[in-house]
Design a protein that fits this description.
The structure is a homodimer.
Chain A (H helix, E strand, L loop, with lengths): L6 H9 L4 E3 L7 H15 L4 E6 H6 L1 H9 L4 E5 L4 H9 L3 E6 L2 H10 L3 E5 L5 E3 L4 H11 L4 E4 L5 H10 L3 E3 L14 H8 L6 E4 L1 H5 L9 E5 L2 H6 L3 H5 L2 H12 L23 H17 L7
Parallel strand pairs in A: 1-2, 2-3, 3-4, 4-5, 5-7, 7-8
Antiparallel strand pairs in A: 6-10, 9-10
Helix pairs in contact in A: 1-2, 2-4, 8-14
């Protein structure tokens, strides 16, 4: 669900036994979605994959959904906005619908819309998300809906995976640890920044959307590494929207990869990252870490 | 750790097999700590209990720590500030030291200070806390220290307890569900407000501290139910500190129990609360809910 998640990273994860997801942006050209699907198939053949879309962006640009359907994924994730208007079209194409939710209310909307799987996304997650922590949200959503629920936000090690599976989640949706995967579409400089950031150095902010005039719905801010730009503009969003200079500065420093100004979206589990590795190794370490914890979980009952 | 947690609630929890904790405030009279301990013993005899103190408040008012020691608890929790200067005094009195931490860095400080138990407190928690979610913080702290680690923040049902125990926590520190316990020091009107609030209706704010001139360290804000007062002053903290009118308004509306202005600290798991019940019933439901999840956790391995 991040610009880092192209076809190559998704393929590495689907090849490793997970369901790789191709991320999209609200301004992407529809063809870029098809190119990512081609990249996926070049590495992973006919293995299953997903494509992540924002419902609010699809409402404005239906061509994004058309392209995602044409890419023939196993599942399309429709998040950040009401998925209801789009579910039938996806189902009619024989594609499963996933929806990320950030509150009990949005979980009930997604269930009523007829989606196949709900992802309870906590505020710890990187990129756009809500305000409720993964742990309380997961408890609340699991008890509110009948659908299977996958947990997202802050899951980065075997301990985190064991936690959400023990709570009753059907799986985990994991993003941030793969920002430093070899296959991620992230630059050397960005990876270096992720690796030296800790869990207390992210900010949930709308300033990077405001500075790019991206009309994200008000309730979803993006979790990014905190930097000089976010420190300067957090709490002054309206002034930022009215400042061409600040907007130009962001664009220019983004081109220069100056991350004291430009944004890098990342979740709080950025504090667990220590090395650039193949995505399959990262996935395997998380799964292998969870296995003994789940196998022995009953032992705490004495 | 909240004004709701007096001797009577702590006694109900210790009688139910948990370790009840008596909360204190930075401006409490030392005698009130002793009175709470008397209340505890009136209901729970010589059962174990804890007393929660803020390290920054103890640094300014050592008499709080002296009173807590004189109350002869099993454990004293020293949180929100460096516990190092106070650990020996507590240990010399034969009392265990607990410390809540909100980052990896503060966990390492607590371990080096010689505390006996670390509580990893996520941002979901009610009252004062940090910014990192329970799930990522727990993974990070468990891998950073050798001490036993208890999880706090957003744990309110059997699912949440199973999650943190499966992850490797030695236990759970649970507050918000007991705000509506029969034994809690909360008014009818406050309970009614807790019961109708959902997980998305809290705010992490310093405005209630600012309005009362309570010198909480900058890095710890309090999670409270969002209301008109927090909406008005969040982001305008310096103006609030300079406004006698706003401060008087808060005091006055607090006396009137007008919670559109006055504060009620609560965690995000407030969204799981449905009824006023005895504390023992709440504790038993959480434990009974976790048991089958932990017993069957290995089954997800197939």
């Amino acid at each position: 669900m991040s610009p880092a998640a192209g076809g190559r990273l998704a393929a590495a994860l689907s090849n490793a036994g997970a369901l790789g997801i191709i991320g999209t942006g609200s301004r992407d050209a529809p063809e870029s979605i098809l190119r990512d699907a081609d990249d996926f198939r070049a590495s992973a053949g006919e293995k299953r994959f997903g494509i992540g879309l924002m419902s609010w962006a699809v409402a404005a640009r239906p061509e994004l959904l058309d392209a995602a359907i044409a890419a023939r994924p196993f599942a399309i994730s429709l998040s950040f906005g009401d998925p209801t208007p789009h579910v039938k079209k996806v189902h009619d194409a024989g594609i499963q619908v996933i929806s990320q939710v950030q509150t009990r209310a949005s979980a009930l909307v997604a269930e009523a819309a007829g989606v196949d799987l709900i992802v309870a996304q906590g505020t710890e997650a990187g990129g756009h998300t809500g305000d409720v922590g993964t742990l309380p949200l997961l408890q609340i959503v699991l008890d509110a809906v009948k659908l299977p629920v996958v947990a997202a936000g802050g899951i980065a090690t075997g301990r985190g995976l064991a936690a959400v599976l023990a709570a009753g989640a059907a799986g985990a949706w994991i993003g941030t640890p793969f920002l430093v995967a070899e296959e991620a579409r992230t630059s050397e400089r960005a990876r270096e920044r992720f690796l030296r950031s800790d869990e207390s150095q992210t900010t949930l902010t709308s300033v990077f959307d405001r500075a790019q005039d991206i009309p994200w719905p008000h309730e979803f801010r993006g979790r990014a590494l905190a930097n000089d730009f976010s420190a300067r503009w957090n709490g002054r969003e309206d002034a930022l929207s009215a400042s061409p200079d600040a907007k130009n500065e962001l664009l220019e420093q983004k081109r220069k990869e100056n991350y004291d100004v430009a944004f890098l979206y990342a979740g709080q589990s950025v504090g667990t990252l220590h090395a650039v590795r193949p995505a399959a190794d990262i996935a395997r370490e998380i799964a292998d870490g969870a296995e003994p914890l789940l196998r022995n979980a009953a032992s705490v009952l004495g």
